[in-house]
Amino acid sequence: MDIGKARRRVILKTSSMGIIKSVSGPAAKAIQADMKNPNINMDVIKRSSELAATISIRKSSK
Amino acid sequence: MPLVAVPLSPDHAVLTQDFECEYPYITGYLCDPLRAYEDRKTGDTKTVLVIDEDNNRIAAYYSIKCSSLRIEEREADDTVTISIYPTVEIVMFAVDLRYREMKVGTRTFALIISSINELRQSVGIRAITLFSVPKAVKFYSESNFKTLSEGMDMYLHPSCEGCIPMYLVLPEIEFDDDCLI
Question: Which residues of A are less than 8 Å from B45 in CB distance?
Answer without folding.
Answer: 15-16
